[in-house]
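User: I'm preparing a small set of examples for a lab meeting where we compare how different chains pack in three dimensions. I only have the primary sequence for this one, and I'd like the structure in token form so I can line it up with the others. Please keep the answer compact; I'll paste it straight into my notes.
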Amino acid sequence: MVDRGASALSLPDDWPTHPEPILALNRMGSFDWDLDNGLFHMDAQAHEVFDLRPDEYDGHPESLAVRVPTTEGFRLDTLVSQALKDGSENYGAYFRIRTRSGTLRWTHTQGYIRRDETGRPRRIIGIVRDATEELAESEERREQAAADEARRQQTNVVQLTTAALAHARTVQDVIDILKDTQGLTHLGATSLVMGLLEAGSRIRLVAEGPSGSFVPGTLVTRIDEQYPMSEVVRTLSPRFIESPEEFAESYPILWPHITDLHITSAAYMPLIAQARPIGAIGLLYSDRVGFSAEDRNVLVALGSSIAQSLQRAMLYEQEKDLATGLQQAMLPRTIPSVPGAEVAVRYRAAGAAGSLGRDIGGDWYDLIPLPGGRVGAVIGDVQGHDTHAAAVMGQLRIVLRAYAAEGHTPATVMARASVFLHELDTDRFATCLYAEADLSTGVVQVVRAGHIDPMLRAPDGTCRRVAIEGGLPLGLSAEFGSLEYPVGTLELDADHTLLLCTDGLVELPGDDLDDGMHALTGLISAGPLDVRELADRLIDVAEERGGDDDVALLLLRRRVLDTPQAGGRLQQHVAPGDPEALTGARHMIRAAVRAWSAGDRADEIELVADELITNALMHTEGAAVVTLRVLAGSERRLRVEVEDSSSALPRRREAGESGVSGRGLLLVDLLTDVWGVEARGGGKAVWCEFVVPERV
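Assistant: Understood. Below is the structure token output for the 696-residue chain.
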């Protein structure tokens, strides 16, 4: 050991004169080396340092070879020669001497080089001392520092692994972290195995690493078999194997299969959560033998951290499976085939991190076949991302379907659904959009409850957002006493596609809704014409983008009919005392007249239809069913039928000058081209027809 940085000795030229008392107090000996004659003078204390009697030393440095080993002497000679050549004023070094008993001990020397006026070295004066205690203390400090560093590294193992496991949401995440090469490095192991307890009696291997370390026959083992993981699960105590011999003796079935891994020691820990074993993990080492108390404590702590992460992941997966199963049960199992339309539906669960169950939510879609060639399309979103939201969603979907199937108008369907949600005794609200389409005419009636607008795409890819006046979200409208839902109408021409979606496809945190709708418009315009391919494309984009919200999507494309049709058909149920139903019927009539290019006679048709409906409601005790259809023939006709449950035929009456009734049938007779009455089972239907021009 060389100490070139030793300070120079400030000694007089005639030193040593009487240095012994001072140096002896510090257990040092002195020397004076005359470079001109080569004599190396030492005092009595220096003789003791070299373990020499005065009669055993003749003053020549070569005589010290009896105490200085050859390699040490060569290193000292080289050091001194270099100091003499490079102009150094001093040098210092640690070296070993062999004592009279033959043992080696450390010694330290410092020399101060005296030169003449020309710079030529003439004399070296210095000291020698026993450095055994000094180096022992230094070695002890180094060992302590090494031990402190080892403890720090062991603590880091737990901290790094725990930090990585904190982000694990599934059992596979935990496995991937532990199997990863960096994970193995953090653990300090050459190989690892991990198994999970199944049915309380067997262990299934779920991880082994590195690749190629799998032992045949250990995929599933019983806990009563002679394997280390089985033992620690049985005893709930860790097992530290400190040598290959111990491994071979304790586990003769396993050892022959892992000899190629050159294992020198191993540590197996039970994975215990809430005082119950859930599995075991084994760490195998090829560069260590034995485990200190600190090593064992760290590994036990590591096993506890892994167990907690595994239990959290297992609970998360159980909750997710339950929630996902509930949600899948609440969504339609299949979408019915609808004549005259191509339909595609998609659902994407949220990818949010956080609490259990946040991968599911309350988004839903539905398609409801209705009489008369109509179909109802529903898209909705219940507030929240949990099993409660999914349960509320399922109930809402069922009641919406029931109300629509009963023949209620879209506005009534939405209003009744809002009342239902309000009376459900839940703190959740929901947005919803219900579109009722007549595929024979292309007329679509749309009601919106706080939901985003629908979109319409033409065959050439042109896409636009259809602004629909809306009402409050479901549940809130009933709470605030506002149950009015305006009905909007749009025309869905052949090969046009109606798109309904939830806001998860549009919104991202920090983005404006209008910007999201504009971006979605671009995606739809550039997407494929086929509705299934387009739906896949949109969901793929949502998947790539991520986000913390679910996505539900429904696409309905009206097909071009292969054969000529007699015309469209619309039907509306109007209950007595239901002003919303009457309003809805008027909306339907107005939309049909516009869709069927009968605008020239729109006022006449609406007036006559309204009169027939009013008569049915006033003069019978039941509801009325309004049907509109287009009849093809030598001339194109629009037929209006109002059916009721009364067999009493309408009759003309003369209205007095001040009478307020009696003019209904006169108006019908005056404004229609032809009208009449048909018996219908227990009731009748009053019908009338209007000649309308062909479409241009």
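A couple of notes for your slides: The two ends are 107 Å apart (CA to CA). Residues 4-10, 352-357, 562-566 have pLDDT under 50 and may be disordered.

User: Perfect, thanks.
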